[in-house]
Amino acid sequence: MIKFPNAKINLGLNIVNRRPDGYHDIETVFYPIALTDIVEIVKAKGELSTLTTSGRPVDCPVEKNLVMKAYRSLEKEFNLPPVDIYLRKNIPDGAGLGGGSSDAASVMLILNEMFMLNLSKEELAQRAARLGADCAFFIYNTPMMATGIGDILSPTEVQLKGKTLLLVKPNVSVPTAVAYSRVTPKPSDIELTNILSQPIAEWKNLLKNDFEPSVFAAHPELADIKQQIYDLGAVYASMSGSGSSIFGIFESANMAENAKSTFAEIDAYVINL
Length: 273
Fold this sequence. Notes:
The chain is α+β, with helices and mostly antiparallel strands and about 270 residues long. It is built from 9 helices and 12 strands. The model has no long low-confidence stretch (mean pLDDT about 95).
């Protein structure tokens, strides 16, 4: 059985509080985009479960990969038989796009169907959230307001259909823990939902990612890319998550394609929203 786990971008990201457990409370909107990995699961040829990766390099021991953790969690609960998992990575890692979390969610969705576990989306989301804060979002895979540590989800009316996304991923990696350590949490001045209800042209001066100041200070080239994207005609541009990908929203596919040519030496994608 095959699924195509997709990436996400963050529309706004407010870091509002540091919790006693060391995690942070956030406010953001997760928005799915059509940049996908490929996950296939078949019954194991041998007696043990395996994970085979291809595409982009995966620098992670098999048992620490979220894909295998997702399988192990359901294997333990439901006494599943061994499986062979094939993962082709297309989504860049260290990009703030949620690729690993999306892969893990797809594994849970496949196993639920493959072995007729009859878990609802809510039940799957509860289990996915134990793997990572944004894993639960990918079970639903529709625009969601996320609060708490990113695991409290509610549907949102934000729609970008008809717009085109330019996504740029430079050769920079920003560890999430490091990014959080450089941010001073504070409540947001304006409700995120109020900002997102306004025309996209109004977002530029209102819709913020709290990671940007410290990440841009450490990696000025990211700030340069964001400004370039604006100069090339985007109506809104931002870093996604804790970086390092930068995206711009364009009114037309032609404008986004023309802008992409500026970034010929690094990873860049044009995606219809």
